[in-house]
Amino acid sequence: MPNSFVKYLPVSLRDKPEKLAFYSLAGCISLGLVSIAVSQMLLAVTVIGYLWMLRRLKGVPPPEMPIVLPLLAFAVWNIIAALASSNILLGLTITKKFFLFLLVLLVPLIVRGEGRLTWIYKAVIAVAVLSSLGGLLQFAADPHRDLLHRITGFMSQWMTYSGLLMLALILLVAFALCNGLRNHKWVLFAAIPIGLALIISQTRNAWMGTVAGIGVLILLRKPRAIAALLATIAVLYFASPASIQQRLLSGLDIQDSTTRTRIECFWTSARMIQDNPWFGVGPKNVKYEALKYRREHEFPDWVYQHMHNNILQVAAETGIIGLILWLWFMLRLAYDALRCYRSANARVRMGEEESTREALTASCAAIGAWVALMIAGMTEYNFGDSEVLTLFLFITCAPYAFMQKRSSVPGSPFPVFSSKAPNSNL
Q1: pLDDT in tens, 340-383
Q2: How far apart (Å, rounded) are the C-alpha atoms in residues 375 and 310?
Q3: Quick one: angle between helices 36-56 and 386-397, nearest 10?
Q4: Where are the domains of the chain?
Q5: Which of 79, 93, 179, 255 has its CA 20 to 30 A from that of 133?
């Protein structure tokens, strides 16, 4: 590898097992903004590198992972719900999605080491900028697009595209707030194309999620700047073309066609859940079962491919118990990210800012991404989007790299977060 490139790599990378796992993970996450097929192939390589690392790890305690239990419980219940469904074989295809959840185990161990997490963050942002420029070129080639022909960047679907841009922008803002702009002026240049592409995508759920996520980040790091955020939103609104303004206002109009489809899906899912409260209709079965529960035949069948809401979709697929387990998993992610933030922020106040920079960035990005996904997920089933889920799991599981087992901290009865991710010492 050329020396000119090597100098930009994390210094904590030591030998072939670490490098294989790290490079493939970086490619899996960043290239997920380009191709889910390539991303999942690289995830398979990451698993190989991970297993190779495990064979060589000696005397290095694994990070504390309280998230594993709720994830395992949710996965098991999905299988039970599939077995209880009318189409068992279709329901069991949900197990393919479990492959992505390996990131929960892979990310915390592989990114442990100075500079690794920041390196992948920058790779994701770089690809997001390229994807944004691609979307802007699409718009320039045909500026008169309707809602069924929106910009998609490297993706095939605008919902996926806007969801990825939403998370990338949250990651960028978290990095800026935790590391400052003085030595990272490139952040401003990266934010412009990503932000413009997100606006032009005309995807309201991604707009809401982005504003909510950035708002929470500002409240955490720079609460006095919340007025500046509101002012920026106002300026962007009044400076936007009439089509963008109308798109935003249409969300408040219950007669708007897209708003009415969301209302229809709400009542459809409510009836499905009422008739199937324990096991749901089964994973992957909603798009077929929903047609039996719709109120009217005004909307085409493809509207019912999912319920356009994370909570309603999970409950319809796996029942109330499945929803409780999913909420356990999601709330655990948020709770641990907040714990990591409190620990890192306390050390910053004690003057240890340099050693806690990555932990602070990881926790802030995780909190912002969690809020963004949950808010956007009120009107879109983004948890079921493989590309969005890949990036989301990476961002929200990164704080576990800074979590030590309680046995490694003498006198501590509870798991604690370290200010600095330990090297793997292979």
Answers
A1: 999 888 877 776 665 588 999 999 999 999 999 999 999 999 99
A2: 10
A3: 30
A4: 3-253+307-417
A5: 179
